[in-house]
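Appendix B, example 12.
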Amino acid sequence: MIAIVIPIGFAGLSLALLLNMIRLVRGPTAVDRILAADTMVINTIALIILYGISQKTTAYFESALLFAMFGFTSTVAYCRFLIRGDIIE
């Protein structure tokens, strides 16, 4: 059963990443681009975890956690830059 679900999950997440990439390129405002980039980070984390499940190892879960921390930090930094014009006070 899991052998059937994993390729479907990869296909769905790949489609979501493609649609996010389109929004990232064509987004009318900077806020749309930030949301698309943040959603791409979330989808990439899901891809990493799905790959870890398919390989039956837990090594990829730690990298997904590190990628999540990096994605959150970069999103907050970019939002602060848009609001204040400066990241570091």
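The radius of gyration is 15 Å. Residues 2-84 form one domain.
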